[in-house]
Amino acid sequence: MRTYPMALLAYAFTAIMAGTTLPTPMYALYAEHLHFSVLTTTVVYATYAGGVLVGLLAFGRWSDTVGRRPVLLAGVVFAMASAVVFLFADSVPVLLAGRVLSGLSAGLFTGTGTAAVVEAAPPAWRGRAPAFATVANIGGLGAGPLLAGLLVQYAPDPLQLSFLVHLVLAGLAAVAVLMVPETSPRTGRLGVQRLAVPPQARAVFVVAALAGFAGFATTGLFTAVAPSFLSDVVGIDNHATAGAIVCSIFASSALAQLAALRADPQRAVAFGCAVLIAGMAILALAVHVASLALMIAAAVVCGIGQGVSFGRGLAAVSDCTPADRRAEVTSTYFVVAYIALSLPVMGEGLAAQAWGLDTAGLTFAVAVAVLAAGCLAAILARETRRVRV
Q1: Which of 59, 63, 159, 389 is least buried, going by the fewest C-beta atoms within 10 A?
Q2: What is the distance between the alpha carbons of residues 180 and 175, in angstroms, rounded to a whole number?
Q3: Which residues form a coiled coil (predicted)?
């Protein structure tokens, strides 16, 4: 069997996810043109997570009933609508609307796109298809700020051109989805995704979810505030550099997840937490000494820690969850992750408004490091008890 259906779906996945991070290098420009603070920037960014959660929970199960292609096409429509809204964004409410639409597109694609890529894989690729879907997802998240940063810095119309390009990419994604056969058996039923964790999985879930929370909070920080850090703290106004820094955290996350696929889940989560602590230390030092090199290093190290702790944390939870409960547990895990993508970042915005961006950054780094250290200690304590038994 040919691989083109899987490749076309992976392209669509990448193109749509790229649109969700496309505005990152532009936040500083929006703030300048519309006269708002870092706090407003973090609120605009965090609104995206709300759209993702609505898409995941309200429509996450629909593709099992109506098919993958209709849901993916709906995701493309939301992505294109978001790009159109951003093309004419002239106020904060319009930016918020654009981010909600972008979040809805991501919410529809996150689960359905992964399932479609895996189902479209030929037999020879079946074992590698989940990893391929992961690369498409996170690769798109990293490509968005890199593409936008280059266009904003070196091309005309910095607040419009990126979204025009994304409209073309999203249109091609729609064509790609229409070209592949339906992969869903359409055996499910419509309804809101239930959230629950069975008793036998709760201890592992709590630790894994907190580790995932720390990692996603870090990702949110870089995606929402890295350009402001770079400009206000380091003194570099190059939007391409800002986009490259955000891209690096997603790239290292994707590579780390692939490298850790066969690692023991519990030990891998512990390793990821340790790496996150190191990343926070580097970030704190980068903010303190205003170093670009250290900020890039912090993004790479934090990406590794986030990728390993999140990916293997999900595996650890799945291992101790009955097969018929995995969908609801996985959804619960993602809800925790997307809350982490929004609330801590808004807290960072409040802290920046009260204390300044550098002090807020240091405080954030300490808080995440403490959370990751607590997760690491819990895992080590469990491993010690297991050895004694």
Answers
A1: 389
A2: 9
A3: none
Q: pLDDT by residue (tens digit) across 332-380?
A: 888 898 899 888 999 999 999 899 888 999 999 999 999 999 999 999 8
pTM for this prediction? 0.91
- What is the dihedral angle through the alpha carbons of 20, 283, 310, 118, rounded to the nearest 10 degrees? 40
Class of the CATH domain delimited by 194-389: mainly alpha
Q: Per the structure block, which two tokens stand in for 1?
A: 């069997």
Over residues 188-224, the pLDDT tens digits come to 677 777 788 888 888 889 999 999 999 999 999 999 8
The rounded percent of the chain whose pLDDT value lies above 70 is 97
CATH 1.20.1250.20 domain position(s) in the chain = 1-189, 194-389
Q: Are 173 and 12 in contact (CB under 8 A)?
A: yes
pLDDT at 389 > cutoff 50: no
CA atoms within 13 A on the CB side of 129: 21
Give the contacts of 80 (CB within 8 A, at least 6 positions apart). 167, 170, 171
Token pair belonging to 65 = 């009933």
Domain 1-189 of CATH type 1.20.1250.20: yes
What is the rounded (10 degree) CA torsion for 306, 239, 227, 224?
A: -60
Phi first, then psi: give them for residue 199, nearest 5 degrees: -55, -40
Band (387; pLDDT cuts 50, 70, 90): low
